[in-house]
Amino acid sequence: MSTAEVQQAPIAEEVPETMNEKSVPVESAPAPEQPAAAPAPVVETAAIEPTPVSESQTAPTETEKTPMPEPQAAPVASVAEAQIEPTVVPEPTPKPTSEPASTRDYKTAEDEPTLTKTVPYAAPDATSHPPPPPELTPDQTAKYEELLRLCKAITEIPISKDKNAEKKPLTDSDRMFMTKECLLRYLRATKWNNVEEAKKRIEATLTWRREWGLEEHTPEHIEPENETGKQVVLGFDNEARPCLYLNPAKQNTEKSIRQIQHLTFMMERVLDIAPPGTETLALLIDFKSASSGQNATIGQGKMVMDILQNHYPERLGRALVVNIPWWANLFLKAIWPFIDPVTRPKLKFNEDMSQHVPKSQLLKEFNGEVDFTYDHAAYWQNFIKLAADKRKRYEERWKANGSQIGESEFYLKGGEKSKPLAATAPEGEASVEAVTEGLQKTTV
Question: Sorted alphabetically, which SMART domains does this protein's record hold (predicted)?
């Protein structure tokens, strides 16, 4: 995206004064030298109009406006600033469900004897734990039960968002999508104000999943997009969130719709790999060595925002952005007004990543201990098989327990069946709409 494009883009009045030339890390506050990373996908979607988002969903009120923090050079954490160890979940966290290496047809990072890694981790570090979920209030419990009743009454869904689109019966995939935690995420996304609206949004997502062809995007179709490792899932943060690295400098394909399909494909695999009790992910974005030509346009960013905001609500746990060049700084400034106020505190600029991710599962270039080299032949097949193995176990549990709408994701991922009904979103997690291709959008 050129500077001219950014200047033509409308920027809301609340864009803070802090986003000026002096806040550009590349020219005035360079981050510590790091090995070259590389491009995240840049997508040509100018012909695709994003679904309008209502003002009530995205526009911040006067009291909600949050100034965009000025990116600063990555600090060295002091003892006083060290992150406090998260509280252990009251229920015992189950051991990884993967079979021993001798009985599997894929390898994980745990199987490699040293900190030199070529494949993804199957489970979080022993020090990482999801925060315990808060209990629902009586009013929230009643709203959840009402939404569950409404969802169980759904029998068919349109195959597209067109007004007169054909409707087809619910599939097992549709029913399995509507877990207890899924329903709670949509209730939180509507701020617990309207059960009927939450139901409509779930139906809209089921329609989108059909129209987008989400389950038809095979590893073979997506693989060319990831040959350079521009998106990598590796390790888990302090709260057991899977870490998805975006590397804009490793862009390797021309603009196309497949680049956005790549994003949603990786999102689905990240959610497959997440351990019991974890609903969100961590995005780690490194702009080092990326060029302005690899950045998305405002229009492209809005399309991704629309997908993530409407169809992946409450999925972003944290986004860590480092080595921000001047042109990415301008891009962030332009989209800042569109980022939900609840999401903004989750975006961290040029912070020491080891404050958020255990060093034992963090790359060396970000102050970690892992020496990772992206070898596509080794990484891709093992990543795909790991995600498929976890997904297979998830589906088997769902079918074995009666194929119920409203089943517990905690149980389906290997946790204990008797998990109390809870809000399951400590710290009010926002949707994963924040940042792809170098940071797109996130919102509740």
Answer: CRAL_TRIO_N, SEC14
